[in-house]
Amino acid sequence: MELEGSKALVTGGSRGIGRAIALELARRGADVAINYNRSEGPALEVVQEIEKLGRKGFAIQGDVGDFASAGALVKQAVADLGGLNVLVNNAGITRDKLLMVMKEDDWQAVVQTNLGGVYNVSQQATRSLLRNRATGARVINITSVSGMVGVPGQANYSAAKAGIIGFTKAMAKELSKRQILCNCVAPGFIETDMTDELNSQMLGEALKMVPQGRIGQSQEIADVVAFLAGPGASYITGQTIVVDGGLTM
Ligand code: NAP
Fold first, then answer.
1. Residue 1: CB atoms within 10 Å
2. Known active-site residue 235
3. E strand spans, the chain
4. Would the CB of 156 count as within 6 Å of ligand 1?
5. What would the pLDDT profile of 63-77 be if each residue is shown by its tens digit?
6. Cα angle for residues 97, 95, 114 (degrees, 5° grid)
7. How confident is the model over 23-57, as pLDDT tens digits?
8. 141 C-alpha to center of ligand 1: Å?
């Protein structure tokens, strides 16, 4: 199995895209620690699914937007897994509002969780990734097409997601010579609780712009993340792989 021996941490692994990523990494042979913030029950179910696949699974509570909490969850993941060589920064939130009515709190919460979270976790995981680079160290950050094209009503989210792309490129330039490869995956519209918040009329309009004519599934993101975590992606770093059914071509 291509990820045999890998030890992966997936933030926001209790639901949606993060859940699918955690299970796909386990299916390909990795032991996986998932982080969650509020959804303990669903997180424990994901751990059970990982164990059914014959891998070790761990659920770790922590708020990625808080530096101390992120440090504690990284430390716990490294202890549980016995090391760390794959980090998937997936945790994210939305608080969509037009800029004219966007409150400071809507801005802070989204930037702090989505972009601050990537810094908080990556910064505190880098030493462990360096120690475990012999097995091929990878950081995969989940950004969004919103950060590439800008979406009305998402100034906070588009800014944070664009920030992740710049962050990933800088990290890749710092760490690629030391065998830590860093990339982004940018999903388009994917069917999760996050897109459930859009009303059906908005979603219908949005899907008219997707050349493939349908919403994407979490598994379709997980497959790309698992590829980037594996040996087939050994000469890819600093890139953003767009998975959006052709939306932004
Ligand atoms: P989701 O179903 O709402 O799940 C979000 C996950 O993030 C949950 O596991 C949640 O954990 C976790 N999370 C939220 N705040 C957190 C925090 N402060 N600390 C730790 N974990 C936290 O969302 P999703 O659609 O799967 O999105 C996953 C990622 O893909 C996000 O980065 C999102 O921006 C990105 N994305 C999604 C889409 C889409 O169409 N769905 C498109 C582009 C990009 P708890 O439930 O435990 O709080």
1. 12
2. no
3. 7-10, 31-36, 57-61, 86-89, 137-142, 180-187, 240-243
4. no
5. 999 999 999 999 999
6. 130
7. 999 999 999 999 999 999 999 999 999 999 999 99
8. 12
